[in-house]
# Entry
Amino acid sequence: MKASDVPRAVAAAVSITTGYGMPVDDAVVLQDSNRIAVRLQPCGVLARVAPLAHRAAAFEIELAQRLAGTDSLVAGLEPRAEPRPHVRDGFVVTLWRYHEPLPGRELPPAEYAHALARLHAGMRRIDVPVPRFTDRVEEARRLVGDRTQSPRLGEADRVLLGDTLTRLGRAVGDSGADEQLLHGEPHPGNLLWTAAGPLFVDLETCCRGPVEFDLAHAPEAVAEHYPAADPELLRRCRILTLAIVTAWRWDREDDLPNGRELGTEWLDQIRAELRQHRNVTGSWPGGGGDNIR
# Structure
């Protein structure tokens, strides 16, 4: 979110929350990307605020409500407010329970895998229309292919990213693996280790695909404890998801701090991962490889 819009976004969250009779004396922005997450005290609410054009709020609320009826470990909506998107001053606001992360502790890989397996099991019990993971791949591929949208991306790197997205997107999509509803980005930043146990947050990225696509976002040690993950498919998904997030760093509108530095670092990592895959398997993942330099 643009820095100039953040104060108004916070004010919108405070106005809506106090309108439900919940006191707000302090508002702290915890996360700032395409939307912001704001901790409101002393009422103990987490407000997610996005520009009005952001259209995932209603879907995220519906999904959270449906997953609440399963055994999934997901953060819940704020029960003192209506479970709906709230529109105020050009922003859409959703209200959630705030869960304090346990300080100085990382979730052990076995518990991380167990939490993700429970989430996947719960997601298999519901049926909601979501895009396939290949839609995200195609969106990243279009960004890389559009020089006006990614003007600072060098041509050799553009070819590398485009080929990786195309070949691995096709290879994973045509793998024949079972597909299901996924979180979409269950990385450590979206899994809170709280007094109530591990809880997944940020459901707007849900898509359909093989569970290995979700596992690719988790630390490598997690896969060792996840039941029946396909090692080769997971290896390809790790490179593919890295290529997707690398593409976003070269978007001319990306305002992530140190985004360009991360984009350069991840390009080098993609090259290293592709070469390692070739050394392990004897072939480039998804075929090709002649554009890897």
Notes: DSSP finds nine helices and nine strands in the chain.
